[in-house]
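Tip: read the tokens left to right.
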């Protein structure tokens, strides 16, 4: 299921300033009993990026099913559009890939015309994934250690 143009998305928490009308009320993000922490998205996800003409493509993969569920709610086209507001002049679309625990973002008109036409330092958007992974997000503390591969390795050490 793709989301994008014209879709109304919840606003993801972030460190960059948002107008008061776009800032979610803290109690609406997580129940009051859940302790949250700000971390770089890199702690929760993997990502890779590239280009198709003047459109940057960022694939983001969750490290666990719990993180994927969080990602669907908070890593929205609106979040990505605001985070890349200085380079993305077009719409941002999101496509969900639940079998891969991943989402794919298309950032239209974000590469200065594309590879051979662009004067940008990164005309193919190869650094966009790393830039997105540096975004700090507020998440329930339990998600930080929800990497199923890490949990499985730790279980194996204790057996």
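Filled-in amino acids:
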């Amino acid at each position: 299921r793709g989301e994008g143009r014209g879709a109304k998305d919840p606003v993801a928490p972030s460190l960059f300033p948002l107008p008061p009308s776009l800032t979610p009320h803290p109690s609406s993000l997580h129940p009051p009993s859940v302790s949250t922490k700000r971390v770089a998205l890199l702690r929760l996800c993997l990502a890779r990026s590239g280009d198709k003409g003047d459109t940057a493509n960022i694939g983001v993969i969750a490290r666990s099913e719990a993180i994927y569920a969080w990602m669907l709610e908070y890593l929205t086209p609106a979040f990505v559009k605001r985070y890349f507001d200085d380079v993305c002049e077009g719409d941002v679309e999101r496509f969900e890939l639940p079998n891969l625990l991943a989402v794919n973002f298309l950032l239209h008109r974000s590469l200065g015309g594309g590879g051979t036409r662009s004067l940008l330092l990164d005309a193919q958007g190869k650094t966009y994934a790393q830039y997105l992974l540096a975004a700090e997000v507020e998440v329930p503390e339990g998600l930080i250690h929800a990497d199923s591969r890490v949990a499985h390795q730790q279980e194996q050490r204790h057996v």
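Residues 65-74 form the longest helix (10 residues). The chain has six helices and seven strands.
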